[in-house]
Amino acid sequence: MAKAIGNLLTLGLSGTIGNMTFSQRGRDTVVSRKRGSSKVPATESQLDNQDKFKEAQMYAKAAINDPVIKAMYKAHANPGQSAYNVAFSDASKAPEILFIDTSDYHGQRGDIIIIKADNFLVLLMKVVIRNAAGVLIEEGEALAPVNGKSWKYKVTTQNDVLKGSKIIITAINRPGKQTLREEVITGC
């Protein structure tokens, strides 16, 4: 792969000419060798990956057609990255829940559970609390971070048997990818 820098002939060029493929990455024109098709049939895993790629591609195309969403993705782009690249990446992977802080959860109304996620366009953070027997104590949505760091969930129901209770967190990003993580309360 090569970059065409400052070449007026290739500026903004994309597509295939002969054995060369031109594409745009930010303000750069990238030149690469034309890729041929494989003679070996795709495996089940490869077909699954192709479907995921197509889904991410369709999402990214739709995202950049909405000026508000495109601007949001562009704001998160690194140098040389387009809004399309960022939207495609967002649609390709689920959000990551980095940690669940239950140190301020003592089973009382008003206690706070802190959730730290990768925060890259996580839209929704669902919280479910179940006691050790699996009985639902409560469920709701955490408040989005004001400072860009941590989601906060304010407990609304008393939990008299805290030990063994599970805090189940589901993070959902804009394209709808979900991640689930649980934390078991071991000490009281």
Keywords:
alpha+beta, 188 residues, four-stranded antiparallel sheet, elongated, Immunoglobulin-like, 34% strand
Q: What's the short story on this structure?
A:
This protein is an alpha+beta fold and 188 residues long. The chain is built from three helices and eleven strands; from the N terminus they run ββββαααβββββββ.
Protein architecture, described:
By secondary structure, the protein is an alpha+beta fold. It has three domains: 1-34, no CATH class; 46-92, no CATH class; 97-184, Immunoglobulin-like. 22% of the residues lie in helices and 34% in strands. The radius of gyration is 23 Å and the shape is elongated. The N and C termini lie far apart (58 Å). The mean pLDDT is 88.
